[in-house]
Design a protein that fits this description.
Oligomer: single chain
Helix content: 40-55%
Strand content: 25-35%
Radius of gyration: 32 Å
Number of strands: 8
Distance between the termini: 61 Å
Number of helices: 3
């Protein structure tokens, strides 16, 4: 029959092993909590940054208003499409007294037009008293140019709205199962 001393030694050995495992578990748990807290802080900063990005994009891509355009004058509104993005631009222009010309041009084409009042190329051209058009643009700086080619002044109202692919993808990613958004 085993002695009591052997049982005591076995019990002490098991206690030491249990204490070592408890210490290792506690250490791992504390590191986990530190990483979990860091992750939560980074996730919060990431979400704030995404919101700022979305707000900035939304402000870059829309404009609307009314204006009086004297004969031969023009209005130009910038459209910015960030790197690695695609912009889907919706334009509506209504001219009350007479037709207008609406162009979408890039920065270089706009500079060419300002210098010579003519365009060799453009991304969109429409003419009339009611213009409702869509165009897809890639990274760069563009301008929506509204020109009154008539001999009489005209009043216009316009709406420029850009939807960005990155925002669309971000919404889908956030809403999708396993997305980045918090539940």
């Amino acid at each position: 029959m085993p002695s009591t001393k052997a049982y005591s030694v076995g019990l002490v050995a098991l206690s030491v092993v249990a204490a070592v495992f408890a210490a290792l578990w506690f250490n791992a748990y504390m590191k986990y909590k530190i990483y979990e807290d860091a992750y939560e802080k980074l996730l919060d900063r990431y979400e704030k940054l995404l919101k700022r990005y979305a707000d900035t994009l939304l402000s870059l891509g829309k404009d609307s208003g009314t204006a009086a355009l004297p004969p031969g004058y023009y209005l130009a509104y910038p459209i910015v499409i960030p790197i690695n993005d695609i912009g889907f631009v919706d334009i509506t222009v209504i001219s009350k007294q007479s037709g207008v010309k609406v162009y979408i041009v890039d920065y270089h084409q706009f500079a060419e037009w300002c210098a010579s009042k003519s365009l060799s190329s453009y991304y969109l051209y429409k003419e009339g008293s009611y213009i409702d058009s869509k165009v897809t643009l890639y990274p760069g700086v563009y301008y929506m140019v509204i020109i009154n080619p008539n001999r009489t002044p005209t009043s216009i109202s316009y709406t420029l709205k850009t939807t960005y692919k990155s925002l669309h993808d971000l919404v889908l990613e956030t809403l999708a199962p396993g997305g980045q958004g918090r539940s």
